[in-house]
Amino acid sequence: MMKLWSKSRRRSMLIATLVAVSLAFYRDSEKTRDLVEFVRLRDALFTTTVDSAAWHRTYLHAGSPENSTSGFRTDSPDRSARFLRSSGIDATVAVETSTSGTIDAIIAILKKLPGPGKNGCGTVRSLSDKIRSLALSSGYGCCSDFTKVFQVIASANGLAAREVLNSIHNFIEVWEPRETRWIFVDPQFGLLATDPDGTYLGAMQIARSARSHKVIKWIFISKGVAFADQWRAAHSLYASPIAWSEIRMPMGSDVVAQDAFDRRIRPLPRLPAQLIAYLTGARPTFARITLQSSVP
To answer: Quick one: which of 29, 39, 104, 184 could link to 100 by a disulfide (CB 3.0–4.6 Å)?
Structure first.
């Protein structure tokens, strides 16, 4: 009788199989810039669906300085600052946060970033190149590039920021320590949101308002984006109930640590490299809450 494979052997075979699968569709996805199949594979393997009660109990404060028990990984402000210094771009992206409130600091960071810029989603792989592309020029990039650049700049300036996704877009939430809650920020289009009374909203509050057709007041930060583009983004990406069939969140904002791993496997094609990063735990898994019926 054949001996059962060891755990390490099974894991190696799984990695080899997934790399082979990713290579099988790598050429077509690169030609068409269509990453749908990769995203489906990633979601099937590395996403955990939670109910609304578990979301509130475990994930609502994940990534906040007040809650370090959720398994959420972060880069320390010192590590983020050292990364910016080593990249030679710390002075360019520095903002004054010591005497300003969270909202003022968010706006200062948003103004460091250009508008959506030129097409080129996923073409810039290293974090330092993403920062140079977005913070130092009109650049190339998509929503996920903007969120990663915002995260490292926010971390270096003492703000806790995490990436969140609705059904069609990636954005940011920044922790407001005075009110102990998260505030929605779209770093690509320069958007914040409030309720009619002027209270800043987080992703869950925007989802609830959009799905119940309540008023959302959008704040447009001037950052080289045409007002018409900001308005279209607010309504197409967030104000429609269709955008909120689910909310997903990577269980980590340690983008500097992730970049360090990515640099070691950079010779590999992009999609196989990403799969290996997820398999080895170098990239965090996702938590997902479906909002098909109601928003908690």
So the answer is: 104
